[in-house]
């Protein structure tokens, strides 16, 4: 796994790459092929106490198995926010 991050005045952008070289399924002769994915994370400050957050997972829509026999979803996303109150 490798991550590139850009941060400037509260703005944060991160790009994470993951790679798996492939493996055999547990207790089987079936081989799961290698795979690589990219994830993007963004934080945008809206006010001094609220930050908009967002993620896009599996940007390349790669089909792979993270756990044996369980296919990972294609491209998915999450949008949210963070309130910071006090200190």
What features would you describe in this structure?
The two termini are 34 Å apart. The protein is 0% helix and 61% strand. With 87 residues, the protein is mostly beta strands. The chain has one domain (2-83). It has strands at 2-8, 11-20, 23-24, 31-32, 35-45, 50-57, 65-67, 70-71, 76-83. A five-stranded antiparallel sheet has the order 1-2-5-6-9, with no helix packed on it. The chain is elongated. The chain contains no helices and nine strands. A hairpin with a 6-residue loop joins β3 (23-24) and β4 (31-32).
Shape: elongated
Mean pLDDT equals 92
Count of folded domains: 1
Write down the secondary-structure element order.
EEEEEEEEE
Q: Describe the main β-sheet briefly.
A: 5 strands, antiparallel
Distance between the termini: 34 Å
Q: Kindly report the spatial arrangement of strands forming the biggest sheet.
A: 1-2-5-6-9
What's the total number of strands? 9
- The fraction of residues in strands falls at over 45%
- List the uncertain runs: none
Query: Roughly how many Å is the radius of gyration?
Result: 17 Å
Return the structural class: mainly beta
Fraction of residues in helix: under 10%
Number of helices: 0
Main location: membrane
Keywords: Cell outer membrane, Membrane, Signal, Transmembrane, Transmembrane beta strand, Transport
Membrane topology: Multi-pass membrane protein
GO cellular component, one term: cell outer membrane
Question: What key attributes describe this structure?
Answer:
87 residues; mainly beta; two-stranded antiparallel sheet; 9 strands; TonB-dep_rcpt-like; membrane; Gsr1381 protein; transport
């Amino acid at each position: 796994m490798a991550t590139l991050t850009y941060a400037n005045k509260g703005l944060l952008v991160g790009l994470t790459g993951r790679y798996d070289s492939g493996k055999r399924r547990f207790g089987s002769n079936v081989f799961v092929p290698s795979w690589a994915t990219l994830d993007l994370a963004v934080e945008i400050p809206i006010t001094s106490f609220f930050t908009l957050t967002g993620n896009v997972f599996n940007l390349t829509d790669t089909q792979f198995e993270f756990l044996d026999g369980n296919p990972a979803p294609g491209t998915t996303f999450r949008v949210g926010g963070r309130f910071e109150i006090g200190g």
